[in-house]
Design goal:
Helix content is 45%, strand content 14%. It is of the alpha+beta class. α6 packs across α7 and α10 crosses α11. The longest helix has 47 residues. The chain folds into six domains: 67 residues, SH3 type barrels; 60 residues; 78 residues; 191 residues, 2-Layer Sandwich (Nucleotidyltransferase, domain 5); 78 residues, no CATH class; 47 residues, no CATH class.
Length: 694
């Protein structure tokens, strides 16, 4: 396995001994490691010694970074950000002297002494910043102070005579601390006065507790009474919402109302990923929706990330949005993720050797559109990627990735239904929009197949091989150039943990925790943590709340909650009854929701027309009934009309039976004469003598 910068090495005999690779020489012979937990400085090691230890299984590479800082930006205090900025300026001044000089003890001390005099900051503080930078990932985030470890939030405080908590606003007694004995009284009061009684409040339970257990203190020394706020605080801290609801109202009530509702210019680069170009273009093909192929969704945007040295396609993205920085970040995400797993999501099986790229570049060259923004500072400050926006004198760099778009059009465009040709929108030309047949997923599959062909089989024209490549007999095929470069010039490859990759590169948003699930884009998700901590029960009981998430717009099967765990995300899965969104992109989801909203609006007019017709029909029937009633109803007293309702009802039923029997005989061509009894009934009806016994 190739050793790369920022890689973590764990010693098997001591799992708490983890070292980070902070520097590798260009000849790939020597490196410097630093223990990420203790206060030591970097130590020099031979690459061959490390490889031997790996072979003997004395050490192993680990992916999870204990210092991966996944704080939500909005939760970081202004003081922390100010201290981080101060440390970042100090580190930048140190790094400007060259990392190699900082690794030599004598030279490092001289540089720190000079900087200390210049900026009037102690040498001890400067050295502390430098150690923190090396040990915690060599990014700006590594320099955040550990204020989150201060205090004891969420932990029970030890008993003492000093009153805990915020001082009272008004002059008077300080109150009492809640000890274990008082907590037991709270628990007893909860079981006796709150959980076993329906339709009672916590205030009622508190008052009953004071009456039962603190009658003496209430009369003699009221300042020793626990307050209602203390009572509520400790009850809610220990409360099991599900158990409380079942004890108060029964399991049937819980199930009914509160259960969760879930069913490059080669001459300027020397090794792979020293420089990567990224660019986007509108593909010359019209696509249709994943949900309904009659819905035309327009032309997709193609993003390609191309290694300048090997010409390898190291990242791709197909979207309906852009070009913008948010979509460019997804292409960068693809650049550092495992390509075997990525292809599997599109039902394409490959081996890792077919597309072996999953590292960060040292420099990124982009069009001024995508990365010329404040948002792109994430790449420079958090991921240590140098940004170069293409300029007039760098047109040769941009042509490397732009050439790939032309190559893709030549190879694929003639085969695609809905492909756009040069006569598009000209008078008398064919409307290519109506010929579209491919969905976004199917077009992405085609792009992946083209990339695999290009990386593994395409011979690059006009690629000038240097002497080393010629002597090694390496052909100008991207995969062969890449493999040779990894083996011989891989000193600058950098890795990144999956969580940090997602934090910095995937889009962020806000989801809502509801009783039906975690709602995002009108899609509902669940998670192991949410079920364990009864989020959905609490949402139905106390109302919904917001959570910060990260999501992958290419596939909406999962979203990831940020800020829940210290060094990782909480993964949320698509609920079973939301299966229609499985393996679909956010573009298709948005299009479906817009289409359904449009159809619903259109149907509103039809619904209104039908409703008005219904009202008119009812009014017409009522008018006829009122008119007929005036003719037939005999003027008799109210009491006479109200008598015999039961007999009248029975008479009406018998009459309906006689009429039904008459219709049956008529339809059966039998004797078409009225029954004598029926004639008698009708006779009585005409006389207004319903319900008589005659």
């Amino acid at each position: 396995m190739v050793i790369s910068l920022n890689q973590l090495i764990q010693y098997k005999y001591n799992h708490n001994h983890i070292e980070r690779v902070i520097w590798i020489d260009e000849k790939y012979q020597v490196c410097y490691l630093v223990n990420i937990f203790d206060d030591t400085l970097p130590n020099k090691r031979l690459i061959s010694d490390i490889e031997e230890m790996i072979t003997n299984k004395h050490i192993e590479f680990i992916q999870t970074d204990p210092w991966a800082n996944l704080h939500i930006d909005s939760h970081i205090s202004k003081k922390s950000l100010a201290l981080q900025e101060q440390a970042w300026k100090v580190i930048n001044k140190l790094l400007s002297n060259g990392v190699e000089n900082l690794l030599i003890s004598k030279k490092r001390n001289e540089l720190i002494h000079e900087l200390s005099t210049e900026i009037e900051l102690s040498k001890k503080t400067i050295l502390k910043y430098l150690k923190r930078y090396w040990k915690r990932g060599m990014t700006k985030t590594a320099l955040l102070p550990d204020f989150q470890n201060c205090g004891g939030r969420g932990k029970d405080k030890s008993d003492s005579t000093v009153k805990r908590g915020r001082p009272r606003k008004f002059v008077g007694t300080q109150g009492v601390n809640i000890d274990e004995e008082t907590k037991n009284v709270f628990r007893i009061a909860k079981r006796r006065f709150y959980e076993k009684k329906n339709n009672v409040t916590l205030r009622f339970a508190y008052e009953q507790m004071i009456k039962e257990f603190y009658k003496k203190e209430l009369k003699e020394c009221p300042e020793l009474l626990p307050t209602y706020k203390q009572f509520v605080y400790w009850l809610r801290k220990e409360q099991d919402d599900r158990k409380t609801i079942i004890l108060k109202n029964g399991k049937r009530h819980f199930d009914l109302n509160y259960r969760p509702l879930l069913s490059s210019a080669t001459s300027e680069v020397q090794f792979p990923l020293e420089k990567v170009q990224i660019d986007s273009t509108v593909a010359d093909v019209f696509l249709v929706s994943e949900f309904n192929r009659n819905w035309i969704i327009g032309r997709p945007i193609l993003y390609f990330c191309k290694d300048v040295w090997s010409r390898m396609i190291v990242g791709i993205h197909v979207s309906l949005d852009g070009p913008n920085f948010e979509q460019a970040r997804i292409a960068l995400m693809n650049m550092v993720e495992n390509k075997k797993e990525y292809c599997k999501r599109y039902d394409i099986e490959i081996e890792e050797a077919d597309w072996p790229t999953s590292h960060l570049p040292a420099c990124l060259v982009a069009d001024r559109a995508e990365l010329l923004s404040n948002a792109s500072n994430i790449l420079t400050e958090e991921l240590n990627i140098k940004i170069e926006n293409s300029a007039p004198y760098r047109g040769d760099f941009k042509s490397i990735v732009e050439q790939h778009f032309r190559l893709l059009n030549i190879q694929v465009k003639p085969l695609l239904p809905g492909a756009v040709h040069s006569d598009f929108q000209k008078r008398g030309a064919k409307d290519y929009r109506l010929a579209g047949k491919l969905t976004l997923k199917e077009f992405t599959q085609i792009v992946i197949k083209c990339v695999l062909y290009y990386n593994n089989h395409h011979v690059i024209d006009q690629y000038v091989r240097d002497k080393d490549l010629i002597q090694s007999g390496i052909e100008a095929v991207p995969i062969k150039l890449w493999n040779w470069g990894i083996q011989n010039r891989a000193g600058k490859l950098r890795t990144i943990s999956k969580d940090l990759m997602m934090l910095h590169l995937l889009p962020r948003a806000t989801a809502t925790v509801t009783g039906k699930g975690i709602k995002f884009k009108n899609i509902y998700y669940g998670s192991t943590l949410a079920l364990k901590e009864q989020w959905f029960v609490k949402a139905r009981l106390n109302g919904s709340w917001k959570v910060d998430i990260t999501y992958d717009p290419r596939e909406m099967d999962f979203i990831y909650i940020r800020g829940i765990h210290k060094n990782s995300f909480e993964r949320c899965f698509l609920l079973d009854h939301q299966h229609r969104y499985r393996s679909t992109s956010i573009c298709d989801v948005d299009y479906l929701h817009q289409y359904e909203k449009m159809k619903k609006t259109e149907h509103k007019q039809e619904e209104l027309t039908g409703k008005i017709q219904l009202l008119e029909d009812i009014e017409e029937i009522v008018k006829k009934a009122e008119k007929q009633a005036k003719k037939e109803v005999v003027e008799i007293s109210k009491s006479s009309r109200l008598k015999g309702i039961k007999r009248n009802r029975q008479f009406e039923k018998e009459m309906l039976l006689q009429e039904r029997d008459l219709k049956d005989r008529t339809n059966g061509n039998k004797e078409n004469s009225l029954d004598p009894d029926l004639l008698l009934i009708k006779k009585f009806q005409k006389k207004g003598l319903k319900g008589t016994d005659e």
